[in-house]
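Async update (no meeting this week)

Hi team, since we skipped the sync, here's where things stand on the single-chain job. The sequence we agreed to prioritize is pasted below, unchanged from the tracker. I ran it this morning and attached the output directly underneath so nobody has to dig for it. Comments welcome in thread, and please keep replies under the output.
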Amino acid sequence: MLKKLTILALIILVISSALVNYLDAQKIKDSSEEEYIELKLKELGWPPYVYSGSNFKPAAGEVYLPVKNFYDNQTVNPFGIYRNGRFLGYHSGVDIEVDPEDLARKVPVYSIFEGEVKAVKTANGYGGVVAVEHPFGEVKLMGIYGHVRLWDANVKVGQKISSGYLIGYLGADNSNETDGERKHLHFGLSKKTDEVDIKGYVEGLRELKENWINPSEFLKSVGAKPME
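Output:
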């Protein structure tokens, strides 16, 4: 009798697991990928956007958007989207595209807030990338500014910069300055400030939850303003 009950329990477990996987697949089918990512993050205990409240408000000074048309031009890779190609995993930041008329123009990149420059380097997948540690109230966040051309970058490691400071300009379209990628800004905000983590994609949603925040929702929550 005990053996039959054990077998029955195993059958129920297998059927339940299959049902969960089927329902997850239906969720993906019936909703956009972005909505599904948000749903899974909520299941991990993450609110729709990560931080608001006094502990994440800047102590003083204005907060700025890093590039023009920051919200309107997030048309390709939003935060948390899963990619399977040259880049594999969940997108840890947001990509801000450039308008066609700006492909041949200088597109400035600004510091969202005051901070200390922690990295100015070339990296696979980015071309040029700049990391700035920003103090927001009681918490520090690492701003990742990717696909920035370095030959005329306006920053160096250890430099203290102000809110709205001109970091440099976006790298040229499909060039070494962007590691062959289209001209755009990858902007991420990492909770890890003990090291410079520039990963543009992460393997799992738990890592996304633990180490990264949604830049768009955060900048909205602190009232970030455009520079132009």
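Quick observations from my side:
The first helix runs from residue 2 to 30.
The CA atoms of residues 155 and 194 lie 20 Å apart.
Reply here if anything looks off.
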